[in-house]
Write a structure and sequence with these properties.
alpha/beta; Purple Acid Phosphatase, chain A, domain 2; seven-stranded mixed β-sheet; six-stranded mixed β-sheet
Length: about 325
């Protein structure tokens, strides 16, 4: 099986690293400039497939928000929580994707009120469900097991999938000590079996990024072929403390939303970057039958970025063959 050989090659290159030796494995620095011809870029503004142009629908399948690197409990996180609550007043949603580093600095569950329940009190009181994954700070206490067991994070396991309407989500444990062999086999099986129109994967660590850690070549080799093969349209992550939206790379848009409360870091730009900024906020996403509308929203309640992920030719072809 091809995935087993790919897994062996990737993991053999990282064997011997400690659980927190992230600096070397998780990507290169942002000042490593990548040539445009190194990555097959498909603009997110490409026209829709001909069979969709006549059937474009304004029907909203799902609205949700995403954030990461939140668990500071400081005024910045509370400001983001307030902005999320105000957005909900005008644009109701029932899901928050929480992409890791949920509790700083060491995943201590005794801080849960300070860093989760209080900052998002107004959102939680409206019945909004958070779906979390584990970040590198989260596994510093009992390998993150208390967070997996915490009802407010709605994590049935360290990696899992769930579906709302025609949108299927796949949550990953991207930490260096994850059960990579089992997880990758599981991911390919779940992607292969999925009949959802939209497939969205989220994890804590970046695949493509222009920040302090930069693009992760090991993750590009690990995930990009799977995302292309099974038409994953969107990957959401944190770890980098900035906001960044890429153009579609082989059909997948990469969205970094690690600006949810932790101290910000500088961000650069790569040939595939559509928009990048270092400012606190969250990401709002509206999923329609033919597109996903993305908004970066700041703590001043203003939209600072807008982008669109279109349902691609490969996605529609796969739907027609299922």
């Amino acid at each position: 099986m091809a995935i087993k050989r790919r897994l062996f090659l990737i993991l053999s290159g990282v064997a011997g690293l400690g659980a927190f030796g992230l600096g070397r494995w998780f990507g290169q620095r942002a000042n490593a400039v990548y040539r445009a011809d190194q990555f097959p870029i498909a603009e997110s503004e490409l026209p829709l497939a001909p069979n969709l142009q006549a059937t474009q629908s304004s029907e909203l399948l799902l609205r949700f928000v995403a954030t990461a690197d939140t668990g500071s409990g400081d005024r910045n996180q509370f400001a983001v929580g307030e902005a999320m609550a105000r957005y909900h007043q005008r644009n109701p949603y029932n899901l928050v994707v929480l992409a890791g580093d949920n509790i700083y600095n060491n995943g201590e569950m005794w801080k849960i009120k300070q860093v989760f329940e209080d900052p998002y009190k107004a959102v939680l009181q409206r019945g909004v469900k958070f779906r979390a994954c584990l970040g590198n700070h989260d596994i510093r206490t009992e390998n993150g097991n208390p967070q997996v067991a915490y009802a407010g994070f709605n994590m049935p396991d360290r990696y899992y999938t769930f579906q709302q309407n025609d949108v299927q989500f796949f949550a990953l444990d991207t930490n260096v000590n994850a059960a990579w062999d089992a997880q990758l086999v599981w991911l390919e099986r779940e992607l292969q079996q999925s009949t959802a129109r939209w497939k969205i994967v989220f994890g804590h660590h970046p695949i493509y990024a222009s920040g302090v850690y930069g693009t992760n070549p090991a993750f590009v080799r690990m995930f990009a072929p799977l995302f292309k093969k099974y038409a994953v349209q969107l990957y959401i992550n944190g770890h980098e403390h900035h906001y960044e939206r890429t153009r579609a790379i082989d059909g997948t848009t990469y969205l970094i939303t690690g600006h949810g409360g932790a101290s910000l870091r500088d961000v650069g730009k790569n040939p595939w970057t559509a928009y990048a900024v270092s400012r606190h906020g969250f990401t709002a996403l509206e999923v329609y039958r033919d597109r996903i509308e993305i908004q970066g929203i700041g703590t001043n309640h203003q939209t600072f970025d807008r982008g669109t992920v279109h349902l691609t030719h490969s996605s529609t072809h796969r739907l027609s063959t299922l």
